[in-house]
Amino acid sequence: MTETETPETIRYTADVVALTPGGDVLLIERDWPPYEGAWALPGGHVDIGETSRVAAARELVEETGVHVAAADLRQIGVFDQPSRDPRGRYVTVAYVAVVSADTTITAGDDAHTARWWPLDDLPERLAFDHADILSAALTHTH
Q: d(Cα 139, Cα 104) in Å, to the nearest integer?
């Protein structure tokens, strides 16, 4: 690295694909930019002292009211395309969880709305690269 090169600031996040056995996925409607008003997977920043798995379980509860033990989350993969977030460089570790279809959901502070979407009738466009993450989750679970 030359003296003029500055290391890139990278933000660390975790996302969750929560699926029902019947084929619905839990999405939140974002209540803030970027992608305000768009549907997205629950997720957010990994806090100091947390693993991405623990952060994923925490964010799922905060944004949707759905409780899943961190140990029950299965890692899908790491998503780190440089252009995946317009705010800068974000690297996310994505997880999948299967939850009961009668699980109660409640939109949290970070979400305008949270709801189950049938996999065969998803919103036209998901925020960020969440369509890619969802596709990867479905490949892992089928």
A: 26
Indicate if the pLDDT at residue 1 is higher than 60: no
- The answer to whether the beta carbons of residues 94 and 76 sit under 8 Å apart is yes
Distance (Å, whole) CA 46 – CA 14 = 7
Give pLDDT tens digits for 78-104: 999 999 999 999 999 999 999 998 999
Q: Are 17 and 98 in contact (CB under 8 A)?
A: no
Q: In the CATH scheme, what is the homologous superfamily, with its name and number, of domain 10-141?
A: Nucleoside Triphosphate Pyrophosphohydrolase (3.90.79.10)
- Is a pLDDT exceeding 90 seen at residue 4? no
Q: Which residues are within 8 A (CB) of 90 and not within 5 positions of it... i.e. 6 or more apart?
A: 10, 11, 12, 13, 84
The tokens for 114 are: 């949270």
Cα 142 from Cα 130, distance rounded (Å):
18
| 42 close to 26: Cβ distance less than 8 angstroms | yes
